[in-house]
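Hello,

I think I submitted the NAP job twice by accident. Can you confirm which output corresponds to this input? Input:
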Amino acid sequence: MTAPTKTALITGASSGIGKALASEFAKDGYHLVLAARGVAKMQTLADELQQRHKVTVTVIGADLETNDGAQKLHADIKARNITISALANNAGYGNFGEFKDSALAPELAMMQLNMNTVVVLTKLFLPDLIATRGKLLNTASTAAFQPGPYMAVYYATKAFVLSFSEAIAAELAPHGVTVTALCPGPTASGFQDKADMHASALVKGKKLPTSEEVAAKGYRALQRGQRVYIPGCMNWLLAQSVRFSPRNVVTALVQHMSKPAVA
Ligand SMILES: NC(=O)c1ccc[n+]([C@@H]2O[C@H](COP(=O)([O-])OP(=O)(O)OC[C@H]3O[C@@H](n4cnc5c(N)ncnc54)[C@H](OP(=O)(O)O)[C@@H]3O)[C@@H](O)[C@H]2O)c1
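Support: Only one job matched these inputs. Its output is below.
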């Protein structure tokens, strides 16, 4: 008897951590559905993974910061008769700068992508995940553990993702579905360009882990069914330390660590 086929849907698979996660799933024999706006980049990745790992890779162009982007993606996948046994809600980005100066529309679009899309895709694919006793990975961030001056809305979106993930992990355990919140610290990817944060002391002059390193560790945590995974000892220590520190001290510390570095 042949083993049942497994298919993973990865959002934000055109670059960075999502692209590297796609490789991890493919190595493990998952067929893939890749979703993001960058279709050409995902097609190049799909060709490479299909050839190297003999899996089927479906590429779907999707803008997931629109109101109905997540619903359209679900409808598209169902129209192709694909059952999803692993969902990686990974697409996301941040905006760097003082909240008083930032435009509202990009903040709302980021909230749509980082939070609403995660909830909608999780809700719509849950029947598949329950039927297959599948796995859910939500890319949160170490930003989830404390407030983040200069990236106030982004940090808040990741706190949402972490809280949501841990809560449904408890609800879904009896149904055989595991939920993992992957919480990377600063990681080399397209993130810094998109967030326009190269001046931030968080990343300026720092040697960051690669997306491949973070995805490989995150993938292993997903396979273990670990609920919250923070790659990197220092990231883990920092995330734990905020539990025992007064919140205003933590906020001031993050403000100091994040502020635009003087050139
Ligand atoms: N890098 C870090 O320092 C870091 C740290 C902690 C957490 N994270 C989180 O890790 C996740 C992946 O980010 P990354 O670091 O890999 O950054 P990245 O290289 O910029 O990748 C972001 C991915 O999200 C996709 N995306 C952005 N807007 C989208 C939209 N409107 N619709 C569909 N897809 C969209 C992008 O694809 P298209 O542009 O092609 O649509 C891209 O594939 C994010 O959730 C991020 O918040 C990153």
